[in-house]
Design brief:
It contains 39 helices and ten strands. By secondary structure, it is an alpha/beta fold. Helix 32 packs parallel to helix 35. The radius of gyration is 35 Å and the shape is elongated. About 6% of the residues have low confidence.
Length: 789
């Protein structure tokens, strides 16, 4: 007896399809369920489906065993029809099979695309799972470019928000029914309705008409799509031969006509003869609603995963509207925004009225949003953006059980996350660490180690409310793509510490510039990787010994000096770094003057920033011998006739600020460089370097003011016109308050004293009246108060 085949064309991540599918499966009671998924991965699915630790949204991750950077995701939410079909099969003991091409084939196609791109060949339009790069953000770009399920789903009625209208065949049906696009039509007719009677028969008929008459294939690679459908047909035939009585086939709606057509087994076998394959491995990974949304760049994404979850759990009727507005009210109130019960009642009435005017049985998300914007948000779009992120898209992140296969590096990170109480969350969450606390110190080290592995779970912000070195503020946001990065990074070691150490050493060997190496040594110290510190320091010392460029040596100093900030708090041994700092500073000081001669304007500007950073680094080093060596080099630069005027002026200012040049020496340099015999442009450049974007020396030093005023006053008309643009640029760097004070000083006659503040009279008797209250507030005794009785 041949098996009875029943086809259920669904939209991936569609709650209406999922509800109708559950009802259909309950009525059919199939003994075999075939699902459009990567063939061979069903064993992993069956093994963990009954584990309560597997909570959607989750994704089947398939990756290349020899090249983990090749990866494919198949995400599922609670309201995904495939997920419900898998759960139904597990609960009722039905056989479960995946019938799409194996993950190895998808990985081979992915590798071929990468090779074509590397060779300069254009990639096929809207290729398998690939979202336009402008739609993919930092963490989801890799996901969108490697998501095999996007191929299967991009061809379904689940048209992404950003897809051009003519690319979706459903637009034809939507326009005939009076809808703007196929997305809104499908939502109204399928996803937002209750249990659909005859739904799947109607879907199959509609898809048959579209595939027969529409000359559109959604930009998919026709050859790859033909192979996928041939493989699904072969899987259906194989299941039919194995004695099952009732077989349910759950696949994307677009594929139903191809699977029920007249293609022969021989033709499919010939087509699949050359199906490429790569060795692959698979596991479950957590997913998020944000990465399930079309806004993330996911090719089969949905606009509002949070709304779809609400539809799945609440169905139709009043529960949908009332429940949604209750959630909206909670979000608004949590953010201190007014939302009364009267507001909610009026919003619900408006939503029902809008639905009735549009001849809809119940309000859809469009009506609910319009009512929310008008009544609850008073027409303000800002709260709507909050509602969109919190409810329409949602903040949910899935979880996987510990029994799921992982690489040792993943297990080590999970153990450390539990020990340090760091929970992975999808939305950004601030974390303020006090490095004097051992737990917070270990958290900081873990986050810094992950950064070395290019896993940006945490983004370092600053020092929080404190200006000390014992605080760090991180922004934490876990991305599903980090699971791939962990697998890729596992080649460096089996623990986070081992992998970060090996990766840092590799970075050190690949670094081309000294500043890169010095920043790396700062990073490995923050990550507390002693083995990497020694290796990177040795590489830095070897490079510095042969680098003859003083500016390159100086540019490497700030990161090394930064170690001083954390040496005490992090209990790191910075002696080796201080030795490197001293040696590099000594070599830089020797040839500094020669290196700074004859520079053009752009190079001089870059050199100024390098000198300023090096000066701050020497100050942070806090060693008198090194400071003296640095001041000696600056003195040679300031007095050199061959160095660039901008840098000579800067050196004079740095020496003046450090009290290494007294007022007489500065006046001598000012007189020399701003004399009538000096070329005006060079004099202006010297003055620009001397002022150094700080007006304090002009405001508080009369001698400096007089010299500069005299120089400007005696400039000829032609020379003044040449100099004034540079002077204007220099003065524009001052703070607005400083410019106002300079303007007031210009109006004051030379040598006149500034206006004195009015003298205030002091009434001791009135002041004494406040003393008892102040003593009480500050907890002070009354001893010594002559007015206390």
């Amino acid at each position: 007896m041949s098996a009875a085949l029943h086809y259920f064309g669904i939209r991936h991540h569609g709650p209406g399809c999922a509800r109708s599918l559950r009802k259909a499966l309950d009525a059919l009671r199939p003994d075999c369920v075939l699902i459009e998924g990567p063939a061979g991965a069903e064993a992993l699915a069956v093994e963990h489906l009954r584990d309560p630790g597997l909570q959607p949204p989750v994704a089947l991750l398939s990756y290349g065993a020899d090249d983990p950077q090749l990866a494919v995701f198949h995400p599922y939410a609670e309201f995904s029809p495939e997920w419900q079909a898998m759960r139904w099969a597990a609960q009722h003991g039905a056989a479960l099979r995946f019938i799409d091409v194996p993950a190895g084939a998808s990985l081979a196609w992915q590798r071929a695309r990468h090779e074509r791109l590397a060779g300069g060949e254009p990639a096929p339009a809207a290729d398998e799972g690939e979202a336009p790069q402008e739609l993919a953000d930092d963490a989801t770009a890799a996901q969108a470019a490697t998501d095999e399920s996007a191929v299967a789903e991009a061809s379904e009625p689940a048209a992404a928000e950003h897809r051009e209208p003519h690319q979706d065949p459903l637009d034809w049906l939507a326009h005939a029914a009076g809808y703007a696009d196929g997305e809104s039509w499908w939502n109204h007719m399928v996803e937002e309705r209750g249990d659909g009677e005859g739904l799947f028969e109607a879907i199959a008929a509609a898809m048959g008409e579209l595939r027969e008459n529409a000359e559109l294939r959604n930009g998919l690679d026709p050859h790859e799509e033909a192979l996928r459908e041939a493989h699904m047909r072969s899987g259906i035939r194989e299941a039919a031969k194995q004695g099952f009585e009732r077989i349910a086939v759950v696949c994307g709606a677009w594929h139903v006509p191809a699977l029920t057509g007249k293609a022969t087994a021989a033709a499919d076998k010939a087509l699949l003869k050359d199906l490429p394959k790569l060795k692959s491995a698979a596991t479950w990974v957590p997913w998020t609603y944000r990465h399930l949304s079309s806004a993330s760049g996911y090719g089969a994404g949905i606009d509002s995963p949070g709304w779809y979850e609400h539809l799945w759990r609440n169905g139709g009727g009043d529960a949908r509207t009332v429940g949604w507005f209750a959630r909206v009210a909670r979000v608004l109130r949590e953010h201190a925004l007014d939302c009364s019960s009267a507001h909610l009642i009026e919003a619900a009435r408006l939503a029902d009225t809008l639905a009735a005017l549009r001849e809809r049985p119940a309000p859809s998300l469009d009506e609910l949003n319009e009512a929310t914007l008008s009544i609850l948000c008073n027409g303000d779009a800002a709260p709507m953006r909050l509602i969109e992120q919190a409810l329409m898209i949602g903040e949910r992140i899935g979880s996987v059980p510990e029994s799921v296969p992982t690489v040792p590096l993943q297990r080590d990170l999970e153990a450390q996350r539990k020990r340090l109480r760091l929970k992975p969350e999808a939305l950004g969450k601030p974390l303020e660490l006090d490095l004097r606390n051992d737990t917070d110190l270990q958290r900081s080290e873990l986050l810094h180690r992950l950064l070395l592995l290019d896993i940006g779970w945490g983004r370092l912000g600053g020092a929080g409310r404190s200006r000390g070195s014992f605080r760090e503020v991180w922004e934490l946001a876990w991305q599903p793509a980090f699971e791939i990065e962990l697998i890729v990074a596992s080649r460096y070691g089996q623990s986070v510490e081992q992998a970060a150490t090996a990766r840092a050493i590799e970075r050190a060997r690949q670094a081309e510039r000294l500043p890169d190496l010095s920043r790396l040594i700062d990073r490995v110290l923050l990550a507390n990787l002693p083995g990497a510190v020694e290796a990177v320091a040795a590489e830095l010392q070897a490079r510095a010994a042969v680098d003859a460029d003083p500016l390159s040596l100086l540019a490497a100093l700030p990161a090394l000096a930064n170690v001083q900030r954390y040496g005490n708090v992090r209990n790191t041994d910075a002696a080796q770094v201080r030795h490197l700092f001293d040696g590099m500073l000594a070599r830089a000081c020797i040839g500094l003057t020669l290196a700074l001669g004859g520079l053009d304007e752009e190079a001089a500007g870059d050199a100024r920033e390098t000198l300023l950073s090096a000066d701050r680094a020497v100050e942070l080093r806090d060693d008198e011998a090194q400071a003296a060596a640095w001041r000696g080099a600056l003195r040679q630069l300031a007095l050199s006739a061959s160095a660039t005027p901008l840098l000579r002026g800067l050196a004079t200012r740095l020496l003046f600020d450090a009290a290494a040049f007294d007022g007489e020496a500065v006046a001598r340099e000012l007189s020399l460089n701003l004399s009538q015999g000096s070329e005006p442009l060079q004099a202006a450049q010297w003055l620009d370097g001397f002022l150094n974007r700080n007006a304090a020396v002009l405001l508080h030093d009369d001698a400096v003011w007089a010299l500069i005023d005299g120089w400007i006053s005696h400039l000829g008309h032609e020379h003044f016109l040449r100099v004034v643009p540079l002077l204007r640029r220099s003065f524009a760097e001052f703070e607005a308050a400083d410019r106002r004070d300079l303007g007031a000083r210009v109006k004051r006659p030379l040598g006149a004293a500034p206006a004195q503040a009015a003298q205030s009279t002091w009434d001791a008797a009135r002041a004494a009246r406040a003393l008892p209250l102040l003593r009480e507030l500050f907890g002070l005794s009354a001893v010594g108060d002559a007015h206390e009785r």
